[in-house]
Amino acid sequence: MEADFRKLFDILPGLVWATGADGVINFVNRRWREYTGITVNELLERGWTATIHTSDIEWVRGIWCAAVTEGSPAEFEMRLRRHDGVYRRFSVKAEPFHDNDGRISGWYGVNTDIERQSRAEAQLEVEKQLLELVTRGVALPEILNQLCLEVEKLSPGSLCSILFSDPDELRFRMGAGPNLPGPYNAVLDGLRIDPYFGPCSLAIKTRSKIIVTDPTNDARWLGSAWPGMMVEFGLGSCWSAPIVGSRGQVLGIFAIYKLEGVGPTDEEQELIDRFARLSGIAMERAESDAMLAASTLELRRANRFLAGAQRLSKTGSFLLDTTTGEQVWSDENYRIWELEPTASPTMEMVLAAIHPDDRDRAHSAFENAVRERKDVELVYRIVTPVGGVKYLHTVMGIVSDISEHIVYLGSSQDVTESKLAEEVQRASEAELARTNTYLTAAQRLSQTGSFTWDLERDEHNWSEVIYQVFGFDPGVKVTMDKIARTIHPEDMPHVETLLRGAAIGEKFELMFRVLRADGDMRHAHVIGHRIDQIPDRPVFMGALQDITQRKRQEADLNRARAELAHVARVTALSALTASIAHEVSQPLAGIMTNANTCLRMLAADPPNLDGARMTVQRTLRDGDRASEVIKRLRGLFTRKPPSLEHIDLNEAVREVLALSSSELQRRRVIVRTELPGEVPSVLADRVQIQQVILNLVLNAADAMAAVNDHAREMHVSSQADDGGEISLFVRDAGVGLQAKNVEQLFQAFHTTKADGMGIGLSISRSIIEAHGGRLWGVSNSEGPGATFAFSIPRDVPARRSHA
């Protein structure tokens, strides 16, 4: 039956797997093996985390262990490596199955590929953000720059560029290219569009996508300077697509560059198409805004002239004889109704021109006024002969000195603009309300609040998130005294410095801690700048973000790194057992010998007191020597928080070489040192720096383990440079390094040793970087072997953050 199930699992499209009751995988279906490229035996040998992205391993392990312990189903997402090294996101679901006694006898799980869905969601989110920038009227260069940065996030390893083409399509103008080399962008800005120069020009001319994966060997660019530019700036491929507007016009070019010579995947093809369209939307919106601004300017100018004319005649006027139906209109009234001045207006003509929805109301109001002989005032719409709609405000009053009949004198004012403005205002208010809703939601999701602060008046206008950070009830009166009472005492001097700067209008940025009334501590990051439009006093606007979760995660990460560093240090020292025993046993043997000699001298007749005294002095010397060795070992084995002190790097090297001397002799390693006396001290943690030195020394010895055709020589040297950095170099005569594999050596859990853990160099690099320095390795330019080195600043303390 089990074999049948496994055959069934092999034909399923998903990645199916099974485990025993202990949660250890013992079966994967054919689709799983094809996707990962590894067999069941390889999986059992390398462990079930072998194909999981390193950033996902720990939290996936936590979820899985909890599910196995609790006997509950598990559901989560993670990134799984494909056989070609590409990671894709999967949804994982696992269910326990039970035996006849109800005990869990194993687990079945299925991994479903959701990479396309995740990518689509990410793209939609980016599009939403960018369209919001467009809607808010953010400047086009800022939008295009942000668009490029978002594309580079969605397509790692990409460099994005956007170029404008002028209306005549004769030259390019630079739109955005935030991460392309500046000189390369400078060449493209103002470049004449020539299809024989490069793919961007050809994409403009052909109105199609142009993909170039090997510029120097592509026959289309023979004789062009463009392939040389690509080589000069380290670019391997270019994918160009025209940005086409809504009217079919080419607005510019959207291009993606890669450092390698590769073509786009299907997902990247879709990415290019989508963001080329989005670029076009942004460009056309910017063009429309510019036209609108120009139209608004022109309208304001016309309004100034119209205002002068309205002082002479704001409205059209008319007379209406209700008995004969005769009407007399002014020229302005004809203009309003858009009728020829030669036309003879009639009541039928007027009623026919009134908008059907307003006609009955207007006719009824007029008849009532005539019947009751009273004035009338109403607003209504008319439809002009060409189909336009206008709003008119008409006022009519009876005049008695013109005729024996009932005659009305009236005026009609064209109020179309004001009515349309009201509609626009209502739409704008609705849009503003929607935008405010989106902003509030965005602030809540990102734990970021906005504020204004009038320093002199001590007035604070906060959004909801900031009230939550300080633990205040929303809407409560906020003062600086009330805020200061919540600031962590250690951070108060920094806040006071901020207040002194703000008093003279300086912008500010600060990370500080808040002690809320409920006992909870929050970490906050605030940025603010002065509002220039209020020149008479310092008033600031800014944002405050709750970074408590980030700080807690950083503290957890630092603790984990410290634990891992201690494990690596103890592991490295365990390799020096024989050397350490030799360092301790030598002085102890000397103590025993000197003690016996002293006894014999004292037992002589007469006693040899001078000889005994010298023997005792040698005993004390050997005791001090043994004590120093034990002291150094205790320091290296101790688990304690990092502490900075001024240390002599050369002395630290000598101590490590002394501890490892026997081990190096056993391995037939010749150690040569070049430690100049003028090398200054550095501000560092002695134990951590000696851990790095010990790791480099042992790695150098390991690298020469298989060397038999020349001397196993290790050269250790130090130097100080003019830039204030101290460097240490450990050179071996071993097998050397391959340039393409150097960075892999510094990755966690990557090892070239059969019994190695693969954490030594990774931890060493993190230690050196925490001291503000760097650690690197290169093959020796002369002779065999490699050199690993680090440099740290003399006076820059290690970077630390609040726990």
Automatic annotation (TrEMBL):
One Pfam family hit: HisKA
PAS domain mapped to chain residues: 1-71
GO molecular function, one term: phosphorelay sensor kinase activity
Enzyme class: transferase
Keyword Kinase: yes
Gene3D superfamilies found in the cross-reference section: 1.10.287.130, 2.10.70.100, 3.30.450.40, Histidine kinase-like ATPase, C-terminal domain (3.30.565.10), PAS domain (3.30.450.20)
Matches recorded under InterPro entries: GAF (IPR003018), GAF-like_dom_sf (IPR029016), HATPase_C_sf (IPR036890), HATPase_dom (IPR003594), His_kinase_dom (IPR005467), HisK_dim/P_dom (IPR003661), HisK_dim/P_sf (IPR036097), PAC (IPR001610)
Coiled-coil residues: none
Source domain of life: Bacteria
UniProt-recorded name of the protein: histidine kinase
